[in-house]
Amino acid sequence: MLDPDSGLSLTIARIVQRLKGSSLHSQLERQARVSLHKPEIKLESLKEDIKDFLKTSGWEKKLQNAVYSELNVFPSPCHPAAPPEHMKEPLAYMRKAQGSWEKRILKSLNSMCTELSIPLAQKRPVSEQKELLNKWNEMGTDEPDLSLFRPVYAPKDFLEVLMNLRNPNYENGEQPSFRSHLGLIQVPLKVKDIPELKEDFGELGLNIGQLGIDDSAQVPPEFFENEHVRVGQKVLAEQDSAAAQQYVRQGCPTALRADLWALILNISNQPEDILYYEQLKSNVIQHDLLVDSLIYKDVKLTASNDDYYFVFEDYLYQVLLCFSRDTSVLEHFTYSSATPPKSYIRGKLGMEEYAVFYPPNGVIPFHGFSMYVAPLCFLYHEPSKLYQIFREMYVRFFFRLHSISSHPSGIVSLCLLFETLLQTHLPQLFYHLREIGAQPLRISFKWMVRAFSGYLATDQLLLLWDRILGYNSLEILAVLAAAVFAFRAVNLMEVTSLAAAEAVLADLSTLKVMPLLQIFLFATVT
Amino acid sequence: MPVRVAVPVRGGGLPVRGLRPPVPQVQEIVFRNFYTAFLSVRVQRPGPSGSRRWVTCLRDYCLMPCPHTEEGSQDYFSLRRHQMLCDVDQVTAVRFILRQPSPVWLHFTIEELQIFPPGQKSPQKDFPSWLSQLTPPEQPASLHGELPDPEKVSTEVQQMWVLTEVIRARQAAARIGRFDVSPAILLVGAPASPHFWRSPPGGGCSRRDGVGVWGGLSRQSDGAAQGPTVALFQVDGCYDINLLSYT
Fold this sequence. Notes:
The structure holds 2 protein chains of 2 kinds. Helices cover 53% and strands 2% of the residues of chain A. Chain A is an all-alpha fold. Chain B has a 5-stranded antiparallel beta sheet, with no helix packed on it. At the A-B interface, helix 1 of A face strand 1, strand 4 and helix 2 of B. Chain A: This is TBC1 domain family member 19.
């Protein structure tokens, strides 16, 4: 491990390098130059005066927000001797498992391609381009024939892969022993227990006000809600990312949520961001990708069928089609265990000069992918801002839900955390479900992979995602999954098959997440 | 010349090479962990009367905070001079004592061992010009106790920048050769009382909650070796890595 001093220096060097070429840097330079005309800037104390000016005009705060964002997104720097793949994923066998999973996905995509004899990418004829441009805001009305397309994989396929994940250096004996895990996940990752979670999620405690609990109709708003809204407005006025992240741990008022999330994710919707989105849009119009059909199919199968999200179908196309073409997403592969698939220009197989990443953003959508975007449509109506928020949330959080890694917020750790929590605190329920062949993870996996999108009511889902942003971690998904099982434990003890267990847990739309979380973490007798 | 040895720890040993008179000092030890939970390091130094004594310079350094789980199991670690309990000048032998109390792992060891003498930093590279334009930091108006000293931090930025360049370029420094280690000793009990006996040949560090001590160092020729072969490692009855001279 790096000792603290050199680790800090490395982090500083990395952040400086990343911010150096950014638009914020050029804006700061421009502001500094403009400020030279001001009377209070004197030549003798030029540096100090400019620094003071930047502070008072709010530019220092923008820089602070940018630095904070970099710290949140990128992991702490590795040891200098560590190769780049170590930063992606330190454990060799997990890298290997991710590699073989990716090969499987690509094989499936390639076979679909050859079966349907559709190229991975082709330029659209001019007439089609014009038509698409006209229909841009109503792509949902299009009814292309997608019957031959099938999703590349579904969450349950991914669960099978995770179940078979084994550490070759671990004692995976045939005989069940204290070393084997009773759940489906058999890798010995470190997961937190309830005392550690209580400490981490301290702001969800019983004696602290929460939106989702203390703003219900029975509670007079003077007790908590009014004050909380007032503090939220103050945080927005200050434009401080770190303060906003701390604030949303107790929930976001609905009116302030869009701005607070944008502040935490450091999205400001500058003109150059809008321009970038327009450029992506023109890329969509000019070229047709195979993944576009996968996206269409996914949206039609999932979001369009959902009572809450079908109205946003057009937005989903506008966001996801542009997302596929956004090469800035490739940056996240430095800290993700996944690797973007490579493809070659036709006829130039194997020649590196003709290699491209396919799709351009390196992310192949799976069944349910569009559900990551759908809840955001409630908050943002302007397509370019919606797009940027989704992209930032993907490269911070959602990519961990469909790649194999040992990260504490990765899906493998979340599954193990869920199973461990259930085993430790509801051992009878866990044993019973296991005996009837209904391993709890089989039911809760799909909730966690989608971050509960499409399973909870939208206001509850947004309260949950507030906490994901506030704590910069996805562990709360596993805690909520365990809390749901705890809530329905009585019914679950009476079922006798997997199908019956699934039926008990089929409908989560009436659940209130914050009371469940609070009770599970803070009010369960251990 | 730099002393840099990559030591993959699998497989049997090969015969020993000759030795050179010892001079060395140790600045930094870098290695990659493989499921070792605790590491102790002892060095052999000349004693007051000319005899050589073993001194513990690192005791039970924790590599895996929770030995039953994966945390820290395959990470890279650096041990620096200032972390050592004793002076690491005039070292003639270094002994690494590995402990893994958890019985769930089949093998445990450390890999890619590199020992750097003082004065040898990563190869100088052309770092960007803006680094040389770093102005010395002004004294901040108020120094909080928790914040690091800005002067210290900014003087290290240069060095660390070079390191980041190294990460990206990943060019190997001059290598001496590759060494195979066949751990041959099983030590039960406190590392401070070294009673060694040979384990069956061909064994890795046993996973029975024991202590593995390295032995059986040998030199293999490395096709990719660059530069003159300098430091040579003596195998002393399959026990220790002896740090010898380098020009």
